[in-house]
Design goal:
The chain is an alpha+beta fold. The protein has one domain (13-142). 34% of the residues lie in helices and 28% in strands. The protein is built from four helices and eight strands, in the order ααββββββαββα. Strands 1, 2, 3, 4, 5, 6, 7 and 8 form an eight-stranded mixed β-sheet that branches. A hairpin with a 3-residue loop joins β5 (84-87) and β6. α1 packs across α4. The relative contact order is 0.21.
Length: 144
């Protein structure tokens, strides 16, 4: 990941408008009903797929995918308390992060994941910065 690389591949304007709508939903936060209906992601990690930051983990309750390991669409928001995330397509409830589970299993607080589910893993603090840049990029492109 570089600072000069755009965080979202340019696409049709409807995709940018959908991303802006998702950002607005994330800023408001999910309603209790929305969160209750959202898929649950276990042992999750931010991952880089091409130029897009996504989540990877074990999902249950996804409306279109069977239970199992998935990668999400573009990650647009991550709750401060890491209990939910908003991607391009939907909210997710977040269970235990992969790095926390591995740190506990290894009895070491210094576990750094470099690969998660076949993709480059991104630490949460870096992911938060990437998400901020993505939001700025979307808002700037919609305003053009």
């Amino acid at each position: 990941m570089t600072d000069t690389q755009p965080p979202l591949t340019p696409g049709p304007r409807p995709n940018l408008l959908q991303a802006l709508h998702a950002l607005e939903e994330a800023a408001a936060g999910p309603s209790p009903d929305t969160l209750a209906a959202a898929p649950l992601l276990h042992l999750w990690s931010p991952v880089l797929i091409g130029a897009d930051l996504c989540l990877a983990g074990e999902a249950t309750g996804h409306p279109h995918l069977p239970d199992g390991i998935i990668t999400t669409s573009l990650l647009l928001a991550l709750a401060q308390d890491l209990t939910w995330a908003r991607t391009f397509s939907r909210f997710y409830r977040l269970n235990r992060p992969l790095d926390a589970a591995l740190s506990e299993a290894c009895a070491s607080p210094n576990v750094h994941i470099i690969d998660a589910y076949g993709h480059q893993a991104i630490p949460v603090p870096v992911a938060r910065k990437w998400i901020e840049r993505t939001a700025e990029w979307v808002r700037a492109r919609v305003g053009e």
